[in-house]
Design brief:
With about 280 residues, this protein is an alpha/beta fold. It contains ten helices and twelve strands. The chain folds into two domains: about 130 residues, Rossmann fold, CATH 3.40.50; about 140 residues, 3-Layer(aba) Sandwich (Rossmann fold). About 40% of the residues lie in helices and about 25% in strands. It has a six-stranded mixed sheet with strand order 2-1-3-5-6-4, sandwiched between helices. It has a six-stranded parallel sheet with strand order 9-8-7-10-11-12, sandwiched between helices. Strand 8, helix 7 and strand 9 form a beta-alpha-beta unit. Helix 5 crosses helix 6 and helix 6 packs parallel to helix 7. The longest helix has 16 residues. The radius of gyration is 18 Å and the shape is globular. The two termini are about 35 Å apart. The structure holds 2'-monophosphoadenosine-5'-diphosphate.
C-alpha cells in the first residue's frame, strides 16, 4: 500500500486525510493517508522517520504550518513555483530523491476561477500579508491573467522583498506587481485575499473596506470559526465572502495529481466537505 501523510504542528484538526481518502475512493486509487505531528524544531527528523519506518511504502507528504520553509530546505529538487515561494507544501519521494512543490497558489487560483466562477483576467488583486501563506500564492496569482497584484503587509519591508523576488516572474504575464503598507493603499480591487494571520489571531481585518470594489470577491485563507469575522466584514461591505475551504481542497487535488497522475473531482469533494464543516 502506498503511504502519504500530512505533517504539521498542530495537525490533529487537518482535513487533508479525509480529502485524500475521498479522492482515492472516487478515483479508485489504493493508498493510505494519515497525519503526523512533528516537533516544532524537528521536521527533518520526523520526515526521515516517516520514510524509514514505513518499509519503503511512503510515497510523499503534505506539509503544513509551521514547516513549509523546512520542507523547502529538505527537498533535493524544487519545482519553479516552490523555488519562487521558498516554501513547500507537497513532497514526493522518488528514485532520484525528494521533490518539493507548492500547490497552494494554483489551489487558490483554481478555487477562484472554477469554484467561485470568477475569471482573473484583467483583474486587480490585493494580497494581504507577506509571510509564508502569501509567498505560496503570489507567483500563481501573477500568472493567472490578473492585471495588477498589490501585496500589502503590516511590515512594508517584507512585502517589498516578496515583490522584488517575483518581479522577473511577473514580466512574461504582463502583470503589474507592487508592495504597499496596509495603511497606504489607494484604489479599489476586484479580489481581496487575506493571507495574514489576523483571522487566526482573532484580530480585526487589517485593511479599510474602501479597498473593495462593489461586489468584489473577498477570500480568507482560513475556514471554520477562524474565518467568521472576515466573512461577516466582507458581507457587511457589499463583497462576496469566501473562506479557504475551496483552496484547501484544490491544493490537495493538485498534490493528488502530482502523486497519482489522476485528477480527482475537487468540486464534488468540496461540496461534500462543506456539508460536513458547515
Ligand atoms: P504564514 O506562514 O501563515 O503566512 P507568517 O509567515 O508568520 O505566517 O506570516 C504572518 C503574516 O500575517 C505576516 O504577513 C504578518 O505581518 P508582519 O509581516 O507585519 O508580521 C501578518 N499578520 C499577522 N497578524 C496580523 C495582524 N493582526 N494584522 C495584520 N497582519 C498580521
Amino acid at each position: 500500500m502506498d503511504l502519504y501523510c500530512v505533517m504539521g504542528n498542530p495537525v490533529e484538526h487537518s482535513r487533508s486525510p479525509w480529502i485524500h481518502a475521498r479522492f482515492a475512493e472516487l478515483t479508485g486509487q489504493a493508498l493510505e493517508y494519515g497525519r503526523r505531528q512533528a516537533p516544532v524544531d524537528g521536521f527533518a527528523q520526523a520526515l526521515a522517520q516517516f520514510r524509514t519506518s514505513t518499509q519503503g511504502q511512503a510515497r510523499g507528504c503534505n506539509v503544513t504550518v509551521p514547516f513549509k520553509f523546512d520542507a523547502a530546505a529538505a527537498a533535493e529538487h524544487l519545482s519553479d513555483r516552490a523555488a519562487l515561494a521558498q516554501a513547500v507544501n507537497c513532497l514526493s519521494f522518488r528514485e532520484d530523491g525528494v521533490h518539493g512543490d507548492n500547490t497552494d497558489g494554483v489551489g487558490l487560483v483554481n478555487d477562484i476561477t472554477r469554484n467561485a466562477g470568477l475569471s482573473l483576467a484583467g483583474r486587480d488583486v490585493l494580497l494581504l500579508g507577506a509571510g509564508g501563506a502569501a509567498a505560496g500564492v503570489l507567483g500563481p496569482l501573477l500568472a493567472s491573467g490578473a492585471r495588477r497584484v498589490v501585496v500589502a503587509n503590516r511590515t512594508l519591508g517584507k512585502a517589498i522583498a516578496l515583490v522584488q523576488r517575483h518581479a522577473a516572474a511577473a514580466l512574461p504575464h504582463h502583470a503589474e506587481v507592487e508592495a504597499r503598507a496596509l495603511d497606504d493603499l489607494s484604489g479599489q480591487f476586484d479580489v481581496l485575499v487575506n493571507a495574514t494571520a489576523s483571522s487566526l489571531a482573532g484580530d480585526a481585518v487589517p485593511v479599510s473596506a474602501d479597498v473593495l470594489k462593489p461586489g468584489a470577491l473577498a477570500i480568507d485563507m482560513m475556514y471554520g470559526p477562524a474565518a467568521a469575522g472576515f466573512l461577516a466584514w466582507a458581507a457587511r461591505h457589499g463583497a462576496t465572502p469566501r473562506d479557504g475551504l475551496g483552496m484547501l481542497v484544490e491544493q490537495a487535488a493538485e498534490a493528488f495529481e502530482i502523486w497519482r497522475g489522476v485528477r480527482p473531482p475537487a468540486a464534488q469533494v468540496l461540496a461534500e466537505l462543506r456539508a460536513i464543516v458547515g
